[in-house]
Specification:
The chain is α/β, with parallel strands linked by helices. The protein is 49% helix and 17% strand. It has helices spanning 3-14, 17-40, 45-69, 73-85, 87-99, 101-118, 125-135, 139-147, 165-177, 194-208, 229-235, 303-318, 325-328, 355-366, 382-393, 409-417, 419-424, 458-463, 474-488, 496-501, 504-513, and strands at 154-155, 160-162, 182-187, 212-218, 239-243, 262-265, 269-273, 290-292, 295-299, 341-347, 370-374, 397-403, 428-432, 435-437, 441-444, 448-452, 466-472, 491-494.
Length: 520
């Protein structure tokens, strides 16, 4: 085994959740052993009292802090239970993941960039006014994204929904070949392979031709990429940046990843969806059976918001400090009205908005006929679970498709632990049997949909940097619904008796681990 493979395997092991679970449990056992020694050795009785007092004070302070500062009940409960079971572990984890200044500092920097880019975004009140005549019940949601979250409403122009990652990536490559001014790309995962070889070939040729090319990927990729991969891309003439490189223990905000998937070409064409830049998303390799994904292509003024999202994250990760936003965020002064209304939106940790969760809940709350959902993960907070159940209980057809083949087994068992209560509420659940379903799609009532990077889990909704596009467009909703029905045809419907047939140890383990779901 060469040194590069050893490095990658070592990094993967060090950042593996099982590895850290073993380490933290060992620390807890050592703490218990040390405390036992202190209280049993006569010489150390005084130290034992001091130790006990310090631990109690720290636990009281942590409980107080969690109750005051944690905005989500599910998050509070998870931390408090972990604190009760393993106080030493909980104290160490909370200090590393929550109390260090990194996360708050990062969120503040991104918010500062949001305020700057908001000055250059052009909102269309006319589009919302026209929407009020087409379907007034969605106007408030677009208004919320515009006023509270600083992501405007636009008339949609040419929109394309992609049913697979293969389709999306092929169209993306075609558009990249047409780039004339700039290319911005921001993705969670970048892996070596045919997709990246093809992409880098295009980007290098475009950079050589004078096109400004910027590529950013999340530092989590460093676990599987060769050493100095980013530097090698820079040497091709492509400006490359890594968001929050993984540095075990030392990274103060490694719990908050850039999970967004965004491409902007010349400020005129934008892409998003569930697909990343790796071979499995185009099914060139097989990891968990067939990889089912979805994507969206938009054109027109709405691309402006995707451009803003990219520049916000690039500014923070690369310390860019550009003042040339208007150079990239060009818009048509008088866009043609249309029956398509869109609002690209972003979400970030500690932004006090819970943007994606609010979008999902509002779609459920105003639905009149159906809400169909595709998601790879299911770890719900109380509010979202109640929204799903209430929609079903008031007569709305609520259906979810999840993977049948998991990529993360513990998370998969936690997702299945929600099945009984959702099924009892009348919600239909399906599992995509050919492989792994990675699409993140909501579609409702034949007119409204959202496509993006946001999973139905706590990490995606509250801890990661995410993005999506809210679309009022009957053709796009029809394409998403057709995709949903095609996917159902390849899926197994889950009933209560189906769930009861799952192995008992998996059902019990999933239900127990669900308590800690918000921490995963």
């Amino acid at each position: 085994m060469n040194n590069e493979k050893i490095r990658q395997k070592s990094l993967s092991a060090v950042n593996n959740s099982i590895f850290w679970t073993v380490i933290l449990v060992a620390i807890q056992v050592a703490a218990w052993g040390g405390f036992y020694f202190l209280v049993t050795e006569k010489v150390a009785r005084n130290y034992a009292v001091i130790f006990q007092i310090v631990v109690v004070i720290l636990i009281i302070l942590m409980i107080t802090y969690i109750i005051i500062r944690c905005p989500h009940n599910s998050y509070q409960v998870s931390w408090l239970i972990l604190l009760a079971l393993m106080p030493t572990v909980a104290l160490m984890m909370y200090v590393i993941l929550r109390l260090v200044p990194g996360t708050g500092h990062l969120a503040a920097k991104v918010h500062e960039k949001e305020l700057v880019t908001a000055l250059h975004l052009t909102d269309s009140e006319a589009a919302r006014h026209d929407l009020s005549f087409m379907n007034n019940k969605y106007v408030g949601l677009f208004q919320y994204l515009s006023t509270a979250c600083m992501y405007p409403t636009y008339y949609g122009e040419e929109l394309t929904y992609f049913k697979t990652g293969e389709e999306a990536l092929e169209a993306l490559f075609e558009d990249l070949e047409k780039a004339e001014s700039f290319i911005f790309m921001e993705y969670f995962i970048v892996h070596e392979g045919d997709i990246m070889d093809r992409l880098l070939d295009i980007l290098k040729r475009k950079a050589d031709a004078g096109v400004e090319v910027r590529l950013m990927y999340d530092g989590f990729c460093g676990l599987k990429l060769p050493k100095r991969y980013c530097e090698k891309i820079n040497e091709m003439g492509i400006q490359c940046c890594v968001f929050s490189p993984i540095r075990p223990i030392l990274s103060s905000y490694q719990n908050n990843r850039d999970h967004r998937k965004i491409t902007v070409i010349d400020g005129k064409v934008g892409y998003t969806g569930g697909f990343n830049l790796a071979d499995e998303y185009a099914n060139l390799i097989t990891r968990f059976g067939y990889w089912k994904d979805a994507g969206l292509r938009i054109t027109g003024n709405g691309v402006q918001s995707l451009t803003a999202m990219f520049m916000q994250m690039w500014d923070v990760a690369a310390d860019w400090h550009t003042d040339a936003y208007m150079h990239y965020m060009r818009v048509e002064d008088n866009p043609m009205p249309s029956n398509s209304i869109i609002a690209p939106y972003a979400d970030a940790p500690e932004n006090n908005h819970d943007t994606a969760a609010n979008v999902y809940c509002q779609i459920l709350n105003v639905a009149e006929d159906y809400v169909h959902i595709m998601t790879p993960y299911l770890i719900l907070d109380e509010r979202l679970r109640k929204s799903l159940e209430f929609a079903s209980q008031r007569g709305i057809e609520v259906s979810l498709i999840l993977p049948h083949i998991p990529d993360k087994k513990i998370v998969f068992m936690i997702a299945r632990s929600y099945y009984p209560e959702l099924l009892k509420a009348g919600i239909k659940i399906y599992e995509f049997t050919p492989g792994f379903l990675h699409s993140k799609v909501f579609v409702s009532d034949g007119c409204i949909s959202t496509v993006g990077s946001v999973n139905l889990d706590f990490r995606s909704l509250f801890l990661h940097f995410e993005n999506g596009v809210l679309v009022y467009d009957k053709e796009i909703a029809g394409a998403a619904e057709e995709d949903f029905q095609d996917t159902i045809a390849k899926s197994e419907r889950i009933y209560l008796k189906t769930y009861s047939a799952f192995p008992l140890y998996k059902r019990v383990f999933g239900r127990l681990m669900r308590v800690f779901g918000p921490l995963m």
